[in-house]
Amino acid sequence: MDEGQEAHWEVVERILFLYAKLNPGQSYVQGMNEILGPIYYAFASDPDVTYREWAEADSFFCFTNLMSEIRDFFIKTLDEAECGINNMMTRMLTQLKNSDLDVWLKFQQLELRPQYYSFRWITLLLSQEFPLPDVLRIWDSLFSDEKRFSFLIYICCAMIIIIRHQLLNGDFPSDIKLLQNYPSMDVQIILSKADELSKKLY
């Protein structure tokens, strides 16, 4: 690192600190760094050095705008509200029931609740489930969709349905391990399945 340059983690830390100061009602919540990471990476690795120089400001702007849409996921007092994370998980489970009743029944039988796996999926927009290039590809699809958080639910359901055979043949420990450590695959398969689910009428 050249003299006078900052490490990337210092820039990310400053963005999160400033966000927390400007939003005292919410402040910093664990996991926000996982949301900021892909945004900052996209700007900081721009091939045009002129754009890279503004990576911090651009990242802060985009992070703040994205958080304005998903901040309710990070506020515990809103967990049970219509805009909260529990409602999102309920919607996902309802969609799974409509899309694949057998898997839904298996989850009911095992008492495998969505809090055990989809809380992280939804709150962090799948940023911890896939390698960074795949996360960026998923986010391209999410952010280009006007109903982006409905599409997020379809993606989560697609992830489950694609591994349905392993889930149906597994027990609680093996299924929860599979869901919490999602197997590596071409994310285009997941996105195509999610698109297919979004176009079905139930």
Q: In words, what does this structure look like?
A:
This is Rab-GAP TBC domain-containing protein. Keywords: GTPase activation, Membrane, Transmembrane, Transmembrane helix. InterPro entries: Rab-GAP-TBC_dom (IPR000195), Rab-GAP_TBC_sf (IPR035969). One of its GO terms (molecular function) is GTPase activator activity. It holds the Pfam family RabGAP-TBC. The protein has helices at residues 8-22, 32-44, 49-52, 55-70, 85-99, 101-110, 118-123, 132-143, 148-162, 164-168, 172-180, 187-198. It is mostly helical. The protein has 2 domains: 8-73; 79-200, Ypt/Rab-GAP domain of gyp1p, domain 3 (Cyclin A, domain 1, Orthogonal Bundle), CATH 1.10.472. Helix 1 crosses helix 4, helix 5 (85-99) crosses helix 9 (148-162) and helix 9 (148-162) crosses helix 12. It is globular, with a radius of gyration of 18 Å. The chain starts with 7 loop residues before the first helix and ends with a helix.
